[in-house]
Amino acid sequence: MQRRSTFPMAMLNRRRLLGGGLAVAAVAGVGAAPGLLNAQARQVNVFNWDTYIGPDTIREFQAATGIDVRYDLFASNDELFGRLREGNPGYDVIYPTNQYVERMVTADMLIPLDHAKIPNIANLDPYFMAAEFDPGRQHSLPYFWGTMGIGYRKSVASPTSWAALIDSDEFSGRVSLLDDNNIIRMALIYLGYSLNTRDPAEIEEAVQLLISAKPHIRTFAPDTGQDLLIAGEVDLCMEWNGDILQVMEEDDDLSYVVPEEGGLLWEDAMAIVRDAPNVDEAHDWINFILDAEVHAAIASYIKYPLPNQAAKKLISEEDRQNPAIYPPDEILEKLQVQVYQGEEVESLYENALTRVLAA
Fold first, then answer.
1. Domain limits of the chain?
2. In the 3-class helix/strand/coil scheme, how is 120-171 assigned residue by residue?
3. For a 10 Å CB count at each end of the chain, is N or C smaller?
4. Residue of 192, 195, 186, 246 whose CA lies nearest to 8
5. Interatomic CA distance for residues 63 and 335, integer angstroms
6. pLDDT tens per residue across all 359 residues of the chain
7. CATH class for domain 13-145+266-328?
8. Do residues 276 and 114 lie in contact, with contact meaning Cβ atoms separated by under 8 Å?
9. Fold identical between 13-145+266-328 and 147-264+335-358?
């Protein structure tokens, strides 16, 4: 994952490979102050997405708590799950996406959080505390969230519906879609179905719609739609809001919209791994991140929307009013959250994707 040298913030390709797929692991160590490097030092081992924290967050946590931080990076939920599948190699806090929280709870890979040790939980928006994938937020707390929608060139298009991508020839040859099973879920949303449907007939309808659209699709991209967009190779792309925000900073003719039918709302959460060696320190880390000033500083740097009400008050008005970061309420109400439905249902979506790409 490369940073654009013209872009002032390290960010936004964190959504790459959200739906799974191949990734190259990235690992980075963060050293503590010399006085902390001894056998008695407290430590927390954090496993997070790349470019997904503030430049000073770790240093400030170490200064505030005296706790050393080992900070490793992963590039996809599949990589995260795979690293922990056969047992915890020593991590304390991890950052899975919503459906993977549920999958990990099902696999007994996470421990319940002690909310009494996380008083800054009071800062969180009640909307994000009512999570279907983790009732009562027993095993996870929200970190950042975002949406899936359409990135587009304003001088060429002004899309309001997913139809512009998959049910129209108006922009034939100038459209890119993601190459993961989120395209199946996008088609389901357009057709008026739940993106979590288990109905094979509804999934089949989505498959046929996408196959019929293929002559007009330039490419199915591995989450590089924003690069195709800014390079002028496409005029519309299915992408994550953060990736489009990145290129919007470089080209003011680019924009982002969640279509009128709605879209996917993802959430990355903080959780503590089963057999974590430093459970108290893990709670300290999560509580520190949820401090209003700390969380706001991270959000101001990476430009993803906050689930933290107190922190949101501290970010710039420009960010708060940017609909590409914080969609309006009428769109928020139409967003759907993916849940884990078991391996059998997951295979339905994977098989559907294979058929679309192979057609």
1. 13-145+266-328, 147-264+335-358
2. HHHHECHHHHCCCCCHHHCCCEEEEEEEEEEEEECCCCCCCCCHHHHCCCCC
3. C
4. 246
5. 39
6. 222 222 333 344 544 434 333 233 333 344 433 333 444 689 999 999 988 999 999 999 999 999 999 999 998 888 999 999 999 999 999 999 999 999 999 999 999 999 999 999 999 999 999 999 999 999 999 999 999 999 999 999 999 999 999 999 999 999 999 998 899 999 999 999 999 999 999 999 999 999 999 999 999 988 789 999 999 999 999 998 888 988 998 999 999 999 999 999 999 999 999 999 999 999 999 999 999 999 999 999 988 999 999 999 999 999 999 998 999 889 889 999 999 988 899 899 999 999 999 99
7. alpha beta
8. no
9. yes
Phi, psi at 175, each rounded to 5°? -125, 140
Please report the DSSP string for 52-113 in residue order.
Answer: -S-TTHHHHHHHHH--EEEEEEES-HHHHHHHHHT--SS--EE--BHHHHHHHHHTT-B---
In a 13 Å sphere around the CA of 253, the CA atoms on its Cβ side amount to 10
CA geometry: angle 357, 227, 171, nearest 5 deg: 60
Class of domain 147-264+335-358: alpha beta
Q: What are the tokens at 230? A: 């800014």
Place of tokens 């449907």: 197
